[in-house]
Recover the amino acids of this structure.
């Protein structure tokens, strides 16, 4: 089977699960955002929130491309790791959930805080990087919105990490997960 296929299919599956979840949860269930606004919030990582929301279709498309590119990179990392450590695809459910948890921490406490989404610009120097990371990790125990936190962990583990691992198992070994 194919490494490229595992990466592309894993990226599409993980990206689709995550963005559909975001459209539903950040849309009618909580904040009432339109799918275009959800995608613009992804693009905010590049251009900042204000510029992204004012950007129209160009920032919607930037958000869409960014989202699926990120998911594809996530899949590529898992697939490359699985080729080196076959245990990752020998137990794809366990390692997919663990990988999803790692992705949750990485995205929410490193990538997003270092993006332009929070402040409108990227960190200028090491002090700015340190301050942003310290602030992000100090917020590890949110008191306000536990359901949203649990949902975000769910989406990264079950809707992103797990499909990436299951697809890697299928594509790299040619076998589905035993029941």
């Amino acid at each position: 089977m194919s490494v490229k296929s595992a990466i592309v299919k894993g990226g599409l599956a993980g990206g689709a699960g995550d963005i559909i979840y975001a459209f539903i949860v950040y849309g009618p269930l909580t904040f009432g955002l339109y799918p275009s606004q959800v995608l613009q919030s992804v693009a905010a990582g590049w251009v900042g929130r204000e510029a992204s929301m004012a950007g129209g279709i160009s920032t919607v498309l930037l958000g869409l491309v960014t989202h699926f590119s990120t998911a594809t990179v996530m899949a590529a990392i898992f697939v490359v790791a699985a080729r080196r450590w076959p245990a990752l695809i020998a137990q794809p459910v366990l390692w997919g959930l663990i990988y999803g948890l790692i992705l949750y921490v990485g995205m929410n406490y490193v990538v997003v805080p270092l993006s332009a989404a929070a402040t409108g610009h990227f960190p200028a120097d090491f002090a700015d990087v340190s301050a942003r990371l310290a602030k992000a990790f100090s917020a590890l125990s949110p008191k306000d919105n536990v359901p949203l936190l649990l949902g975000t962990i769910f989406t990264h583990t079950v809707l992103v990490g797990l499909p990436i691992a299951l697809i890697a198992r299928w594509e790299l070994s040619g076998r589905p997960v035993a029941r």
